[in-house]
């Protein structure tokens, strides 16, 4: 087994409208919005949403892409090459997420079964996209 002291701190998604994205992640996905007021006041560069006590998703405006000069090609990375981000939930949270997405007419895929992940095979999963086209997988383990 590996040393499990490394944790996923955050994922940065490029979005057209960070406030609308935070609203989607709060109301459709059920995540806690962070720093939205500070963003709208111009005090911070982007808002975030909390996945859990250790992990957040930053909602970076596409206008920031042009300033991403720290790595060659970083400015062109908006939406690429990330395939998808996977959210692992409890069975209840999984069902509640799907219900919220369907209630908001967000297209979802059929269920997957026994797809391999960080905790082994997941009992069920499905995929959906946020309003900016970022792909998410939701799953729960047995």
From TrEMBL:
Chain ranges of the VOC domain: 7-141
InterPro entries on file: Glyas_Bleomycin-R_OHBP_Dase (IPR029068), Glyas_Fos-R_dOase_dom (IPR004360), GlyoxalaseI/FosfomycinResist (IPR050383), VOC_core (IPR037523)
Pfam families: Glyoxalase
PANTHER family in UniProt: GLYOXALASE DOMAIN-CONTAINING PROTEIN 5, GLYOXALASE FAMILY PROTEIN
Protein name, per record: VOC family protein
Species, as recorded: Streptomyces tagetis
């Amino acid at each position: 087994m590996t040393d499990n002291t490394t944790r996923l701190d955050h994922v940065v998604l490029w979005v057209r409208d960070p406030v609308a994205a935070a609203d989607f992640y709060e109301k459709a996905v059920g995540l806690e919005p962070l720093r939205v007021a500070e963003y709208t006041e111009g005090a911070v560069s982007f808002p975030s949403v909390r996945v859990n006590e250790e992990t957040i998703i930053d909602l970076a405006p596409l206008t920031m892409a042009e300033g991403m000069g720290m790595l060659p090609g970083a400015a062109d990375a908006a939406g690429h090459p990330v395939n998808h981000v996977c959210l692992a939930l409890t069975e209840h949270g999984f069902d509640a997420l799907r219900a919220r997405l369907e209630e908001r007419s967000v297209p979802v895929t059929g269920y997957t079964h026994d797809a391999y992940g960080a905790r082994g095979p997941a009992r069920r999963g499905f995929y959906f996209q946020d309003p900016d086209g970022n792909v998410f997988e939701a799953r729960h383990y047995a």
